[in-house]
Amino acid sequence: MPLRSICVFCGASTGAQPIYRQAAESLGRHLAEQGLRLIYGGGAVGLMGVVADAALAAGGEVIGIIPQSLERAEIGHQGLTRLEVVDGMHARKARMAELSDAFIALPGGLGTLEELFEVWTWGQLGYHGKPLGLLDVDGFYAKLGEFLDHLVTERFVRSPHRAMLQLSESPAGLLNALRLWQPSATPKWEDRQPD
Ligand code: AMP
């Protein structure tokens, strides 16, 4: 399936290093230049605001999905192509997933990880066949990668499911990997005997 809309999960903070902001700017700009629509959490704060502003400044289309309860805290971005205000967090995530052909996580905190892991587990269960990946900034996700490999070694995650998560240091490299990725038919349940 050609990629048209890319969901970006990222911090509601900008983090401790300027390089995180620079990576969010670079990703937003790259998506717009490639004619890809950005789907994100709709806030104007942190890296969320940075990626959206960069895509808009480069002439891109940006759709934000924000729960009513967070519209004030995360400052619903008023300059987007479209801001959808939904009932709650579950509705937000479902709508972001519905609108998107692929998922990218920039650096972020618990919310970013939760959103990424949720779409990953949905893919692992075969609920969708959409690619996902990490935009790794200055080794930000290296330790997570080590832990994920440990889960495979300890046989809680199967290799094809671990391999679903792409990783690149550049937006172009990551989008290329997402385009080339093919869903695997490996079932999640390693220990289950065949029927
Ligand atoms: P964070 O990575 O914690 O800075 O949060 C980034 C985004 O994830 C923000 O828009 C949060 O509203 C969102 N978020 C926080 N908690 C959750 C959650 N439980 N599920 C999904 N998104 C969340």
UniProtKB/TrEMBL annotation:
EC number, UniProt record: 3.2.2.n1
InterPro entries given in the database record: LOG (IPR005269), LOG_fam (IPR031100)
Record Pfam families: Lysine_decarbox (PF03641)
Domain of life: Bacteria
Annotated catalysed reactions: AMP + H2O = D-ribose 5-phosphate + adenine
Statement: the UniProt record of this protein carries the keyword Hydrolase: yes
GO MF annotation terms: AMP nucleosidase activity
Top class in the EC scheme: hydrolase
Gene Ontology biological process terms in this record: cytokinin biosynthetic process
Record-linked NCBIfam families: Rossman fold protein, TIGR00730 family
Family: Belongs to the LOG family.
Record protein name field: Cytokinin riboside 5'-monophosphate phosphoribohydrolase
Protein species of origin: Pseudomonas taeanensis MS-3
